[in-house]
Write a structure and sequence with these properties.
Assembles around the rod to form the L-ring and probably protects the motor/basal body from shearing forces during rotation. It is found in: Bacterial flagellum basal body. Keywords: Bacterial flagellum, Cell projection, Cilium, Flagellum, Periplasm, Signal. This protein is of the alpha+beta class. The chain folds into three domains: 6-15 and 164-229, Dipeptide-binding Protein, domain 1, CATH 3.90.76; 20-157, no CATH class; 237-348, no CATH class. Helix content is 19%, strand content 39%. It has six helices and 23 strands. The chain has helices at 8-11, 42-54, 180-194, 217-225, 312-321, 326-339, and strands at 6-7, 12-14, 20-29, 70-79, 88-95, 106-113, 119-126, 132-135, 140-143, 148-157, 170-175, 199-203, 206-210, 228-229, 236-240, 245-248, 253-254, 257-270, 273-275, 287-289, 292-306, 342-343, 345-348. The strands form eight sheets. Strands 3-4-5-10-7-6 form a six-stranded antiparallel barrel. The two termini are 27 Å apart.
């Protein structure tokens, strides 16, 4: 089976060109009675009091705050690489307390900080919730997750991550799936394109490419990421027992085995009958007489022989020949693995 070449940018990333996670704590207001219960969420009550004091409303007794239209939330976002000050980014808003829905709410100004504690963006705006919750006296209907919302372009970048692309002397290509063969192929493709030994394999997941002086780094990276290479991977069979899904890689090989799949079906049918006394009898009672029919059917077992070193197509054809489904195939693959004839990793999730 022929493998398709793929672009380097589709199987690898460049070190330094990465997203950064941001997080912040804020308040969503304007909810229609679906906010946090102040008695159960003291952090929401204190946040509301602190916000009002910053806005000039002082001397507030926090114990008297019983509003139900406010919810404490965690706000998360990803800061894209090379984001400039003033650029908008999307944010996700998640309830922190016992709010039942964020629908119709508005997020107040929320600073978003990085892992270093510095604020890189500020979020605010009306939240958009895809789920809903309807509650009545005797029933409750929830569709989706109404306590998680998004704000498209809801944050503005206030601080840039320092990264001098034009000062780099080399770039490192990081494979998403480390593999010695794939790394070697990437090195060879890059060196062939550049006409010299610029690339070097550092480990199964990293290839370092030197940058010549007075070279535009952005254009240089653009050339590399659009080169095509044929990635390699280990033979693997992935099985999801919960859904019955089976994914078999093209490199999977099977040794010579004989497979049989049969079954025994037992059907039990009850046909009870009623025995009643004569119309003028004394002391007679009605009796239920059980009548059970047992039907045992044994499915003929069929053998199929897989010759040595068969391919993925041969394996599928062989399993189809004995008429097995996904559940039975999982058991057969496990048995083949136990017998030592499956030349691949069997991963069950």
């Amino acid at each position: 089976m022929a493998k398709a070449d793929v672009r380097i940018k589709d199987i690898a990333s460049f070190e330094g060109v990465r997203e950064n996670h941001l997080i912040g704590y804020g308040l969503v207001v304007g909810l229609l009675g679906t906010g946090d219960k102040m008695a159960n969420s003291p952090f929401t009550r204190e946040s509301v009091r602190g916000m009002l004091e910053r806005l000039g409303v002082a001397n507030i007794d926090a114990n008297l705050l019983q509003t139900k239209n406010t919810a404490a939330v965690m706000v998360t976002a990803k800061l894209p690489p090379f984001s400039r000050r003033g650029a908008p980014i999307d944010v996700t808003v998640s309830s922190l307390g016992d709010s039942t829905s964020l629908r119709g709410g508005t997020l107040l100004v929320t600073p978003l900080a990085g892992a270093d504690g510095e604020v890189y963006a500020v979020a605010q705006g009306a939240v958009a919730v895809s789920g809903f919750r309807a509650e009545g006296a005797g029933a409750t209907l929830t569709e989706g997750v109404p306590t998680i919302a998004r704000i498209d372009n809801g944050a503005i970048v206030e601080r840039e991550v320092g990264f001098s692309l034009d000062q780099m002397k080399s770039v490192r290509v990081a494979l998403r799936t480390p593999d010695f063969t794939t790394a070697t192929r990437v090195r060879d493709v890059v060196n062939t394109e550049l006409g010299a030994q610029f690339a070097e394999v550092l480990d199964p997941g990293t290839i370092e490419v030197a940058i010549a002086s007075k070279t535009n780094v952005a254009e240089f990276v653009s050339v590399i990421e659009n080169l095509t290479v044929q990635p390699d991977s280990i033979a693997r069979v992935v099985v999801d027992e919960k859904s019955g899904t089976i994914v078999i890689g093209s490199n999977v090989r099977i040794g010579q085995v004989a497979i049989s799949q049969g079954g025994l079906t037992i059907r039990v049918k009850e046909n009870p009958s009623v025995s009643q006394p004569n119309p003028i009898s004394i002391g007679g009672t009605t009796i239920v007489i059980p009548d059970t029919d047992l039907d045992v059917t044994e499915k003929d077992s069929k053998f199929t022989i897989l010759e040595g070193d068969v391919s993925l197509q041969d394996l599928v054809d062989g399993l189809n020949a004995i008429g097995v489904g996904a559940r039975q195939t999982i058991s057969i693959l496990q048995a083949i693995k136990s017998s030592g004839a499956l030349h691949a990793d069997l991963e069950i999730i």
